[in-house]
Amino acid sequence: MWILYAVAASVIWGVSYASSGRVIEHGMAPLTFFFYYACFGAIAGALALAAGGRLGDLTGELRALGSDWPWFALALISSAAGTLLIYMAIGEKNATLASLIEISYPIFVALFAWLFFRQNQINTLTLVGGALIMGGVVVVFLANRG
């Protein structure tokens, strides 16, 4: 199922970036958009937890992290910062070009997974894929420098 979830997420992110680009291009500040995004996420998350009978598990799950709570904090902070930064990039250029540059993030996932946890998923084919991604980022950037 992971592949279906990943493809579905990709499709949904496509819808999100295209529609957020439209809203930002028509005058909503990226920070304002981010605020509404965060509010909606909090409400939708609370409703989903309540519907699933898991709203009471919030503090228990946080306590269960034990000494891993700093990773949770880092994940929240970096997710929020990344979301805000992509909205700012969309506001400065457009959703298509911002997302074509942002798509290089798997390279940084691999780098930080290795730096933080010594996880190594790299082999010859993943290196080739990473090089193609970075090559694409360079081509997009060079084609749109103005």
List keywords for this structure.
mainly alpha, single chain, 81% helix, 7 helices
Explain what you see:
The chain is an all-alpha fold and 146 residues long. The protein has 2 domains: 76 residues; 44 residues, no CATH class. Helices cover 81% and strands 0% of the residues. The chain contains 7 helices and no strands. α2 packs across α4. The mean pLDDT is 93.
The arrangement of helices and strands along the chain is: HHHHHHH
Q: How many separate helices? A: 7
Helix residue percentage: over 70%
Low-confidence stretches: none
C-alpha-based Rg, rounded = 18 Å
Topology, number of strands? 0
Indicate the mean pLDDT: 93
Oligomer: single chain
Terminal Cα separation, in Å? Answer: 42 Å
Strand content: under 5%
- What characterizes the major β-sheet? none
Helix-strand makeup class: mainly alpha
Shape: globular
List the domain count as a whole number. Answer: 2
Could you give a short description of this structure?
Helix 5 runs antiparallel to helix 7 (124-143). The chain is built from 7 helices and no strands. With 146 residues, it is mainly alpha-helical.
